[in-house]
């Protein structure tokens, strides 16, 4: 655990609260870890050039993880309940508690003028819904062994949904942008670019003509390829899932099951990555973890508890949505190392054509069997004669082990995106970074 103290208003008070609790209650458990948080999240929504909703969510409190009598326990309390943690551990209440001062601001956040989202466009009528999420998160971690960390992060995320009315039907397109850092972030995203990107996807959806069930090569574009592997492999290599030892996870361990050319990492140090941080939510300094390399599994990602239970190396992947939930092993930023293939050549189709996937939507993988089903976004079918036909409402289905064996190309390009990922009721942000990647003979359908 790092002893670094990030400079941010109110961070010292959080450090003092966490350190005080860890010291005062040290003898009440074999091990005690205290997480103090003060986060303000502000969301501003505009529809058709008018403000439609503004929400503020202040999350402040203390989360305590204790190992006592051979069992891990967790308790979360609000600032006015800090002294009750002693009752939970069966210890005398301290005579006094340090004052809880924080209550962060939004680091100078100023939402975009609602009218600015109405970018002038000719053609079919359309609407624009925008959401700006500004988050100022400050936290401190201390434990009964004397380790301590305090940190802050600022995130600004913008999302746009364009609705296009064409031939009496409504079509939707999406776009998003994000900046994240340990200081106030610059809002340098082009509103016009975001709207035009979303509108372009909506227009493609309106022109979609390729339907039915198919089996063809599939090329995932930059970042979409990382999202696909995050679902197929990343979740399986979270330590709590990895120790389930299911048929699918045993299959991943078999010699030859993983492509030797594929290098996959989890990297919380990526600049502006949605999942980036200097230290995780247990105060462990951020490090890059090799998940796959040379056809072999490197290391599952862990938190303190799962590392100890499984006899695994501790990685900096203890993450939580806020103080009310214990930290669990989660991806930070999924990164695929680029290959040497020309991205344009990956898109060549012979006989059956090729599906190009721009992004992934909702879906799931069964970690017991490896069977998966995902919605694919911003898709185009490239016919054998070179035509590029938009495809709408695309679904991808298959078996993860079979799919991994069909990897046949890794591009030399590279791109990134941000997404949210859910696990055990906790929805957090992750980064997705990769080149284009091609798989042979995958099953997909378009409506």
TrEMBL record:
Transmembrane segments: none annotated. GO terms for biological process: proteolysis. GO terms for cellular component: cytosol. One of its GO terms (molecular function) is metallopeptidase activity. Pfam families: PmbA_TldD_3rd (PF19289). InterPro entries: Metalloprtase-TldD/E_C, Peptidase_U62_metallo, TldD/PmbA_sf. Residues 215-416 form the Metalloprotease TldD/E C-terminal domain. It comes from the Bacteria. Belongs to the peptidase U62 family. PANTHER family: METALLOPROTEASE TLDD (PTHR30624:SF4), UNCHARACTERIZED PROTEIN TLDD AND PMBA (PTHR30624). This is TldD/PmbA family protein. The lineage of its organism: Bacteria, Bacillati, Actinomycetota, Actinomycetes, Kitasatosporales.
């Amino acid at each position: 655990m790092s002893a670094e103290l990030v400079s941010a208003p109110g961070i010292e008070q959080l450090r003092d609260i966490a350190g005080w609790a860890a010291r005062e209650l040290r003898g009440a458990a074999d091990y005690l870890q205290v997480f103090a948080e003060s986060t303000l999240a502000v969301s501003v929504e505009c529809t058709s050039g008018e403000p439609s909703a503004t929400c503020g969510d202040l999350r402040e409190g203390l989360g305590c993880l204790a190992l006592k009598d051979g069992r891990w326990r967790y308790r979360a309390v609000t600032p006015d309940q800090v002294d009750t943690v002693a009752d939970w551990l069966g210890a005398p209440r301290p005579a006094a508690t340090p004052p809880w001062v924080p209550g962060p601001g939004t680091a100078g956040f100023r939402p975009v003028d609602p009218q600015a989202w109405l970018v002038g466009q000719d053609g079919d009528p359309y609407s624009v819904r925008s959401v700006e999420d500004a988050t100022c998160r400050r936290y401190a971690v201390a434990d009964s062994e004397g380790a301590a960390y305090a940190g802050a992060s600022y995130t600004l995320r913008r999302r746009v949904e364009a609705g296009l009315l064409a031939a009496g039907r409504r079509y939707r397109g999406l776009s998003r942008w994000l900046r994240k850092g340990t200081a106030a972030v610059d809002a340098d995203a082009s509103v016009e670019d975001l709207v035009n990107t979303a509108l372009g996807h909506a227009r493609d959806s309106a022109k979609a003509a390729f339907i039915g069930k198919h089996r063809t090569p599939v090329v995932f574009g930059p970042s979409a390829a990382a999202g696909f592997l995050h679902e197929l492999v990343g979740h399986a290599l979270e330590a709590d899932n990895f120790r389930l030892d299911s048929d699918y996870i045993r299959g991943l361990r078999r010699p030859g099951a993983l492509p030797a050319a594929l290098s996959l990492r989890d990297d919380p140090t990526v600049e502006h990555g949605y999942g980036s941080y200097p230290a995780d939510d247990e105060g462990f300094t951020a490090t890059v973890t090799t998940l796959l390399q040379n056809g072999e599994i490197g290391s599952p990602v862990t938190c303190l508890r799962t590392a100890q239970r499984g006899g695994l190396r501790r990685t900096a992947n203890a993450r939580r949505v806020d103080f009310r939930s214990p930290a669990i092993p989660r991806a930070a930023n999924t990164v695929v190392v680029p290959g040497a293939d020309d991205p344009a050549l990956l898109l060549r189709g012979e006989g059956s054509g090729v599906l190009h996937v721009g992004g992934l939507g909702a879906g799931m993988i069964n970690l017991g069997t490896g069977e998966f089903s995902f919605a694919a976004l911003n898709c185009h079918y490239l016919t054998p004669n070179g035509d590029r036909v938009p495809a709408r409402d695309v679904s991808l289905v298959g078996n993860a082990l079979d799919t991994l064996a069909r990897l046949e190309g890794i591009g030399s390009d590279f791109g990134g995106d941000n997404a949210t990922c859910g696990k055990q009721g906790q929805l957090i942000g992750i980064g997705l970074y990769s080149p284009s990647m091609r798989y042979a003979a995958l099953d997909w359908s378009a409506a």
